[in-house]
Amino acid sequence: MSEPLLLHSLGEFACLTLPALEAAGASVICEIGAEHGGNTTHLGRWLGPRGGRLVSIDPSPGAAYLDWVAAHRDLARHVALPSLEAIPQVGAQDAWFVDGDHNWYTVFHELAAIERVQRAAGRPLLAFLHDVGWPWARRDLYYAPDRIPEDARQPHSWDLGVRLGAAAAAPGGFRGCGAFAVALREGGPRNGVLTAVEDFGAASPVEYFWASVPGVFGLGVLFDRAHPAAADLANLFGPLHDHPLLAKLERSRLANYLTVIDWQDRAAVTSAERADGSEPARRAS
Ligand SMILES: C[S@@+](CC[C@H](N)C(=O)[O-])C[C@H]1O[C@@H](n2cnc3c(N)ncnc32)[C@H](O)[C@@H]1O
After folding, report:
1. pTM of the model
2. Does any ligand 1 atom lie closer than 6 A to the CB of residue 131?
3. Is 280 within a domain?
4. Domain range for residue 230?
5. What are phi and psi of 275, to 5 degrees?
6. Which CATH number covers residue 114?
7. How many CA atoms lie within 13 Å of 88's alpha carbon, on the beta-carbon side?
8. Residue owning the nearest CA to atom 18 of ligand 1
9. How far is the centre of ligand 1, averaged over its atoms, from the C-alpha of 110 (Å)?
10. Ligand 1 contacts CB of residue 56 (under 6 A)
């Protein structure tokens, strides 16, 4: 099978997350944000032979993913609710994968809810978070803005897109094409996934270890410093935290992808003009 044009799934980090789950002795795992199962099915394949259990939370996953869950009832179950409703029902887990709605309000409250269920069960917290890098580190994305209280919602657009180095959303660029809306501005308080993790860490009485692997939109790892596997987890992720070579490769990958989007946008305009019978517009560059 050929690689997708844009690597984007949390599943790309399986070479790190599965050894981490092994080190932590994890057998009961929850993933928030299943989509097409790009990561969840990796977890399922890993958990199956270990007799583990997987629960996924996603109000609107892909149909093929639900077929996969139906074919793996002994292993997996799906909760079709938004995370903030589902986490108290699902309860404590050995590990969490947080990859649902990538905005400050949702991620801050997901972490707070996860911390509550873990503390109530007397179990340490281990969470892997996706999209802690550009573009959602410091800018909210909303799959369903109506689910976010109005006073916690950034002004946003369903049409505009984002570009490296530009704080303001603008026409073109990386965008949701109807699947999600983006905050009009990058940065500032209560904006973005990484800001949510930092604010959660500052508000919590628990001492957490944090590492961020700067590739494929950024993987964050958060766990109790008192976690029994803390030393192994820190050895695994500590050397990758904000790794400058990975960060440079990621930035180059993103710049190249944004160039591809520009080419696609120009090609779409040209073919629309041809269909219209008009002369293709001339463009500098
Ligand atoms: C980026 S995709 C997840 C990708 C997947 N984890 C992977 O690595 O391949 C985000 C998913 O989160 C789901 N989602 C959006 N809001 C959510 C929420 N409040 N709670 C749980 N899932 C949510 C969306 O329906 C979407 O399927």
Report:
1. 0.95
2. no
3. no
4. 10-138+189-270
5. -65, -30
6. 3.40.50.150
7. 5
8. 82
9. 13
10. no
